[in-house]
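Weekly structure sync, notes
Attendees: PL (lead), two postdocs, one rotation student
Agenda item 3: pending single-chain targets
PL asked that the sequence for the first pending target be pasted directly into the notes so everyone works from the same version. It is reproduced below exactly as submitted, 688 residues in total.
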Amino acid sequence: MAVTATTPSARPETAASRTGAAAVTTAFVLLVAALAVVDITQGTAAVGPAEVLKALTGRADPADASVVVASRLPRMTAGLLVGAALGMAGAALQAVSRNVLASPDTLAVNAGSYAALGVAAVTGVSLPLLASSGVAFAGGLAAAAVVLGLSGLGAGTVRLVLAGTALALGLTAVTEGLLLLFPEQTEGLYQWNQGSIAQNGFDGVVQMLPVVVVGLAGLLLVARRVDALALGEDTARGIGVPVRSTRITTVVLATLLSAAAVTLAGPIGFVGLCAPAIVRLLARRLRGALRLRTAVPLAGLAGATLVLGADVLLRTFVSAERSVAVPTGVVTSIVGAVFLVAMAARLRDTAGAAAVDTLRIRSRAVFLVTLGVLVTVLVGVTIAAVLVGDSKLLLGDVVNWAQGRAGRTVSFVLDTRVPRVLAALLAGAALALAGTLVQAVTRNPLAEPAVLGVSGGGALGAVILVTTVPVAGSWSVAGAAFTGSAVTAAVVFGLAARGGFRQNRLVLVGVGVAAGTTALISLLIVLTDPFNATKALTWLSGSTYGRTLPDVLPLAAVLAAGVVLTAVRHRELDLVSLDEDTPRLLGLRLARGRLGFLVLSVLLTATAVAAAGTIGFVGLVAPHAARALVGRRHTRVLPVALLLGAVLVCTADLLGRTVIAPAQLGAGLMTAVIGTPYFLHVLVRARR
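Predicted structure, written out during the meeting:
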């Protein structure tokens, strides 16, 4: 009786679901078609809708027909294919990991593909498009395997995103280093990395289309198994689903789709994150959209809508001549960064993503020995940094230079080298102090200026001033950097404060803001000087090249004030880092003290960025290592962290300009290579 009573009601519900799916699919198809029509009528050539219609019907002028057939139609088709591939890949990754923030971006698939193609380009071997797709696939799959291995499928949202972000930063640093070292072999790779659907003919689209079709067919075949995983591993195994092989197959197929998109158009950011989210919004009224067999095609259509929509909006609001230089991926990255911030602000996942430091008691002897060793190391590194470089000097040369008795050659070398060394030392110490303050105030051991987007905001402010006012002085650049850092800090800390700084949303919001500032810097560089990719790489890779003593003065002043202030208020830092209640019980104004420390950290970060560009992970590694060495009392952590930060950045700068001399690598690239494994180690320790 129960069966016969429920069956009639189930059938109308199923029919309604199918009708709704058909309606949504039809709406998506019509929207994509409308965007495609508008897209092929936009461009630099004076070929409007009437000329496009004539070209499609074979009645156009040969020149107009060539523009439509060789440029606009391939661009539009590439946008459709890339958007669909990324949308489907994102839907598959989110379904198999049961994580709403999984995507080719957050799993470092795009960064892995970029790094693999960079390595292939350095070898000088010219690869056909399909072979390039295979290289990109291998790199993307390896990166995804590392991220999923460290974070675990089905693990917390925060851990997955942080592992992917950290690995992407490290891989991107390596790739940008290759770009700087081998400019001829990697020519055009930086612009390609911003993601552009511009094509010269249909060759690329035709070669990548079968790859996308194979990926889609494979996902549809494993769709039922992936849906069963949502019931739980034990239940899925009970009904005969091979859990491990299903997950591996799905990740491989999603990576294949991502690699095809990357090969054709470069990394188009955040489409794989936003497209499935749009489908999930529809799923609230359309239950059938929750099943992967329905979600994958819908996500593909949503992805195509996002890419074509971004291209249409770009050409609508930016002049035709400039829009050609602006990659589509920059626009989607900005939109995706806003989406990630909005998602993080609403996130309720507060599962621990980082290990909480246990209270360690270290003896005074241990602290003094550690301090002595670090001072000795710092002196040695500083001397080496001053003496070693493209021209090797002796200590006597330095003494003569200090006394004004050095020759012209020695004076020239030291006049340019000493400010660089000072910038590296002071920037490292400032970032370490800023990281210590942020971690204490937020009680989040993964919080640091670069991860939270504060460094990126400072870089954006500095680049805005440098590109618009090339003759701006060091104090002006520092002021612009502070303004950028202050704005991003207000956004990050303001959104995170709604649920308490202990919430993991602080780091996720910071990751989103950092991605947005990076995209805006790329957009600014392209719009103001599309051929000067080196300018963007200099700021984003952290370089002390060309620094003078006036450039270092703002940083020295702020750092001196910061050291004095934190030394005086170190007990307050200890209380703030404990919990919410203890400071209040002791009469401490928690909100006021927290705000003061955060403002100081922003000042330190901004002046460090103005002096040395964006240098990541120093604010994470130095405080962590200091607490491990001397315990959690800030009267000991602060000096040790300052010394560690100075040593780390000075060493990175020394290696970057000497190991491969006369070529040079920015200190930020070196610290990213060092800091990425440490960051991942923290996540692994937390998981255990």
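Discussion points:
- DSSP finds 29 helices and no strands in the chain.
- The radius of gyration is 27 Å.
Action: rotation student to compare against the earlier draft before next sync.
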